[in-house]
Amino acid sequence: MNQTDKKGHWENIYQTKEFHEVGWFQSRPDVSLEFIDILSVPKNAKIIDVGAGESYLVDHLLDRGFGNIYVLDISSSAIEKAKYRLGENAKKINWIVSDILEFKINIGFKLWHDRAAFHFLLKKEEIEKYVENAVKGIIPGGYLIIGTFSEKGPDKCSGLPVRRYSINELESTFLPYFKKIKALNIDHITPGGQVQNYSFCCFKRL
Ligand SMILES: C[S@@+](CC[C@H](N)C(=O)[O-])C[C@H]1O[C@@H](n2cnc3c(N)ncnc32)[C@H](O)[C@@H]1O
């Protein structure tokens, strides 16, 4: 899928669907919050949610008092919808419309979060570029929280093919720059009642 098709797919999704209708909808991003809460990240630390879409994670980060939050998505429609939902609080967020592979990273993040965006990268060179960006973008001692469909999960997400990862495969993808500190598999139930098994890992940047 070329860049225009990829962006067009996501713009169309966010322009035609309500958040509570999409398969990845969560009323509360429990696993992500559980991982973030054990890390004791300082409140002024730079945090990015990559491929955030309309996720409520940003609302919970604001509630926890984090003051240096970046939200990145390839879809400007997703970003506009998230901004609209947050109202005045949207001014507290750094919004970035970009393909993560095109994003020129000159910010040192303490925490990088990605739920169900990385798994759309299928080509070896795309995966390598993402890892390179994460290595550049996360400061030593910082954290990467990543969630993908697991080896038992579906082979498509939002109608697009995905690469599925076991926890071991995620770990080997981010070696030798990251050390695994916590991981789990979890079933996500879509609004339509489908069960999707995810692999979630939290890594420390070495
Ligand atoms: C399945 S949704 C997950 C959204 C959100 N992380 C969540 O858990 O609710 C995937 C998101 O990643 C975004 N996305 C897909 N490929 C991307 C890329 N290459 N760069 C940035 N964002 C991307 C999509 O626009 C979409 O919002």
Automatic annotation (TrEMBL):
GO terms for molecular function: methyltransferase activity. One of its GO terms (biological process) is methylation. Keywords: Methyltransferase, Transferase. Residues 47-142 form the Methyltransferase domain. Signal peptide: none annotated. InterPro entries: Methyltransf_25, SAM-dependent_MTases_sf. The keyword Transmembrane does not apply. The keyword Transferase applies. CDD domains: AdoMet_MTases. Gene3D superfamilies: Vaccinia Virus protein VP39 (3.40.50.150). SUPFAM superfamilies: S-adenosyl-L-methionine-dependent methyltransferases (SSF53335). This is Class I SAM-dependent methyltransferase. It comes from Shivajiella indica.
